[in-house]
């Protein structure tokens, strides 16, 4: 997949006692957010303690927002939870009090000003960065062998000198072909969960991130059929013949949180599409020849990744692979090419599963050596002209 996409359907606890404000909030943001409506700060605190925390809490000052902040900031497990306070009028005094109580932002209760979605997406990205930094400092400390680093610098420096005319030509063609920057930068997670900017020639339209929301059914790594949509009630609520005990508001409709979590658990970490409509005219050629990845030679030269290793992942993919079963894939060096690329991608096969990719990454992390790297490099050249249009 190309790019570092924003997460969709962030989980929000909305704490408000005024019904009219709640209705208006659901109308404005119900199609973009996964919303749980709560009536009191006590209810929100109890839910946070006993379930997976939300991406943010939005609570009105009149519903006990300041008391909620006092409680939530006093606990180590919730002190970093994003909290937005809503008020009838924004004044310097209110802003000062919210800052003193370590609130994250303030909005009018009708959200007539400001960009709520931009703030929520920022909070989400901030949470990802903090989680990855904590993991990298406490779990893995990857040491790159001297022979590997020396080979990377020598090979990459020579390649950049030889390929400089091609790099310039491709940059010109991209600029002529479509609007947007020549080089695409995305946050990636490499060896030891290190976060860095990965460079690639841009091969997608500038609105690619928005298009992804409607393309889930085309994902090559989707498990099984997975064609079931979220239903209104879970089996447990239907059996009790009661209203939903854990309501969420998703895409403007009420759904059951239990049902949503079951569907969410079936989703896969990797995403890739055949005949991707987001790709530009020249982008398809650049991808099929892997020319789009040449700017990553600069990543190798500065030490972000190695020539051979496990592909660095976008943040939202990497955070799904932090269990003991999968974490070892980050114990190996990140790389421009690697074992899974030459094992199946180069043969044009379409049946590589997410699990197979992860296991090949783990195998490389455990066994990599100078001889293995040389073999992978030699196998990479015939794999460049791949038969799969991805």
Automatic annotation (TrEMBL):
<feature type="domain" description="Bacterial sugar transferase">
    <location>
        <begin position="148"/>
        <end position="385"/>
    </location>
</feature>
<dbReference type="GO" id="GO:0016780">
    <property type="term" value="F:phosphotransferase activity, for other substituted phosphate groups"/>
</dbReference>
<protein>
    <submittedName>
        <fullName>Sugar transferase involved in LPS biosynthesis (Colanic, teichoic acid)</fullName>
    </submittedName>
</protein>
<comment type="similarity">
    <text>Belongs to the bacterial sugar transferase family.</text>
</comment>
<dbReference type="Pfam" id="PF02397">
    <property type="entry name" value="Bac_transf"/>
</dbReference>
<dbReference type="InterPro" id="IPR003362">
    <property type="entry name" value="Bact_transf"/>
</dbReference>
<keyword id="KW-0808">Transferase</keyword>
<dbReference type="InterPro" id="IPR011006">
    <property type="entry name" value="CheY-like_superfamily"/>
</dbReference>
């Amino acid at each position: 997949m190309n790019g570092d996409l924003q997460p969709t359907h962030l989980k929000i606890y909305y704490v408000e006692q005024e019904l009219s404000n709640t209705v208006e909030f659901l109308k404005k943001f119900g199609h973009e957010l996964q919303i749980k409506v709560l009536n009191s700060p006590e209810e929100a605190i109890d839910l946070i303690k006993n379930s997976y925390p939300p991406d943010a809490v939005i609570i009105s000052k009149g519903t006990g927002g300041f008391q909620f902040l006092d409680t939530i900031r006093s606990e180590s497990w919730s002190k970093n939870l994003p909290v937005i306070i809503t008020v009838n009028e924004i004044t310097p005094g209110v802003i000062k009090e919210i800052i003193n109580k370590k609130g994250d932002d303030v909005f009018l209760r009708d959200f007539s000003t400001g960009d709520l979605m931009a703030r929520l997406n920022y909070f989400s990205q901030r949470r990802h960065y903090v989680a990855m930094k904590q993991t990298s400092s406490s779990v893995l400390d990857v040491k790159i062998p001297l022979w590997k680093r020396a080979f990377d610098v020598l090979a990459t420096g020579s390649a950049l000198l030889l390929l400089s005319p091609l790099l310039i030509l491709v940059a010109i063609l991209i600029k002529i072909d479509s609007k947007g920057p020549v080089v695409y930068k995305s946050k990636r997670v490499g060896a030891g969960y290190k976060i860095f900017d990965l460079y690639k020639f841009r091969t997608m339209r500038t609105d690619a991130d928005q298009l992804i929301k409607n393309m889930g059914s085309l994902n090559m790594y989707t498990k099984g059929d997975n064609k079931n949509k979220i239903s209104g009630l879970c089996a447990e609520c239907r059996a009790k013949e009661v209203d939903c005990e854990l309501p969420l508001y998703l895409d403007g409709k009420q759904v059951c949180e239990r049902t949503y979590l079951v569907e969410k658990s079936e989703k896969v970490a990797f995403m890739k599409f055949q005949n991707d409509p987001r790709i530009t005219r020249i982008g398809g050629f650049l991808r099929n020849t892997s020319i789009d990845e040449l700017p990553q030679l600069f990543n190798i030269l500065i030490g972000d990744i190695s020539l051979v290793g496990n592909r660095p992942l976008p943040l939202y993919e990497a955070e799904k692979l932090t269990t003991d079963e999968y974490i070892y894939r980050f114990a190996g060096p990140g790389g421009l090419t690697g074992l899974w690329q030459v094992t199946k991608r180069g043969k044009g096969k379409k049946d590589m599963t997410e699990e197979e990719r992860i296991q090949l990454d783990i195998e490389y992390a455990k066994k990599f050596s100078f001889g293995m790297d040389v073999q992978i490099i030699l196998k990479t050249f015939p794999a460049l002209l791949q038969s799969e249009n991805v």
